[in-house]
Amino acid sequence: MAKILVSNCLLGCSCRYKGDGCRSDAVLALAKEHTLIGVCPEQMGGLSTPRAPSEIIGDRVINTEGVDVTEQYRRGAETALFLARLNQVDFAILKAKSPSCGKGRIYDGTFSGTLTDGDGVTVKLLTENGIPVYSENDLDELPL
């Protein structure tokens, strides 16, 4: 039985920037045999729901109102790492494309819907600390 850190929005929680969730039945089905530990790094970092959309621009996270929310993203990532370590998770499944949770492809910082190669703030921190990260699109690659 694996312990898996999972984005709360994938579990159906209404925590995304626009106040909705993006429930993944395939991710939820993993709870039949594994332990899922839900996190929302953006909320855990102190951001409200709903909130202005944010994207990574250089080494900063900026929202559509021009506000630098990098510190909130870093704080949320640190909290997610703390919970991952506390629960001794085997890996994480985080929301694709997010400036916090996106793995491999994230929005490019122009707020145009264009994707670029890169990882979100939480993904970077988890992988730097040896915790493998997958998105909801990579479930066939899970080490189960």
Write a structural description.
The chain is 24% helix and 22% strand. By secondary structure, the chain is an alpha/beta fold. The longest helix has 17 residues, at 70-86. The model has no long low-confidence stretch (mean pLDDT 97).
Short summary:
By secondary structure, this protein is of the alpha/beta class.
Secondary structure: elements and pairs:
Layout: E1 3-7, H1 25-29, E2 35-39, H2 41-44, E3 54-57, E4 60-63, H3 70-86, E5 91-94, E6 105-107, E7 115-117, H4 121-128, E8 133-135
Parallel strand pairs: 1-2, 1-5, 5-8
Antiparallel strand pairs: 3-4, 6-7
- Mean of pLDDT: 97
Number of helices: 4
Give the N-to-C terminal Cα separation: 8 Å
Tell me the β content. 15-25%
Main sheet: strand order: 2-1-5-8
Biggest beta-sheet profile: 4 strands, parallel
Order of helices and strands: EHEHEEHEEEHE
- The helix fraction, in percent, is 10-25%
Detail the poorly predicted runs: none
Estimated radius of gyration: 14 Å
Anisotropy-based shape: globular
SS content category? alpha/beta
**What's the total count of β strands?**
8
Give me some keywords for this one:
alpha/beta, two-stranded antiparallel sheet, four-stranded parallel beta sheet, 4 helices, 22% strand
